[in-house]
């Protein structure tokens, strides 16, 4: 039996603009997905949480088990546990794929390989979604901590590698980076979930249509890119007031692009007075918002008063990890 886990993520800066090559920053969160793999002695088919595995229902799991087939012929029982809310922009599906890669690597007797897990999971996510998916979620889940994506190599950050993907005849390319920073004592991140499912592909399409009709609005994406660079620099320097300020500015541009929602705005308004900065996180249209705060309990209370589900998360959570081998 092997057991591996991987964290979810939230985007601090740059969602949507990253699709057009602007820099973006994500960080791992405390909530994780755990995968347990056990070689079956008494069953002759792969199972998932006690039921016969159906590849059509779990296309990314099917993709990954074919990429990293166990060395033994015997079928495997996959158990999935986790505390990341589904379809809320926190990368639950990427974390599941990454944890599965780690567990399959262990089962094959190989070392844990976050770069391979990041690459295979990205391909699995893209193939299951039938096209475009940035490697933001899978890279953050694999490496943990802070991950910066950019279409150029950012010289002042630690370089992790490049991901390329052919989509509809064009080759997309993302450079992945990380950095270490000391987060000042007492600063926390609160996540507020609207409970409304936002569709990433629909929101990405909405922005694409807006730009098609009004090409001059690409200036807003450049503004997000500039805010992201400033926010990343402030985070590296541990200047959390400036990080919060940049988050709020980033949100205002996202709102003007039309990707916020009345539910997100309600939670953001409630969290703002007790926070250093607030913004939606992920594709928007629903899903989650985040607040950078020195008063996490107060911020959680304010979000819950408005009907959101809120929880505190920590920075620098580890990426892909082995939990148990027996
Ligand atoms: C979704 O979590 C983030 C977006 O920027 C889409 C992407 O990066 O692929 C909206």
Word description of this protein:
With about 325 residues, the protein is an alpha+beta fold. It folds into two domains: about 1-180, Ribosomal Protein S5, domain 2 (2-Layer Sandwich), CATH 3.30.230.10; about 190-315, 2-Layer Sandwich (Alpha-Beta Plaits), CATH 3.30.70.890. Helices cover about 35% and strands about 30% of the residues. It contains nine helices and 13 strands. The strands form two sheets. Strands 1, 2, 3, 4, 5, 6, 7, 8 and 13 form a nine-stranded mixed sheet that branches. A four-stranded antiparallel sheet has the order 10-11-9-12. Helix 1 crosses helix 3 (about 115-130), helix 3 (about 115-130) runs antiparallel to helix 4 and helix 8 packs antiparallel against helix 9. It is globular. Bound molecules: (R)-mevalonate. (R)-mevalonate binds near residues 15, 18, 19, 133 and 282.
Labels describing this entry:
four-stranded antiparallel beta sheet, single chain, Alpha-Beta Plaits, alpha+beta, binds (R)-mevalonate, Ribosomal Protein S5, domain 2, 326 residues
Task: Write a short abstract of this structure.
This protein has 2 domains: 180 residues, Ribosomal Protein S5, domain 2 (2-Layer Sandwich); 126 residues, GHMP kinase, C-terminal domain (Alpha-Beta Plaits, 2-Layer Sandwich), CATH 3.30.70.890. 37% of the residues lie in helices and 28% in strands.
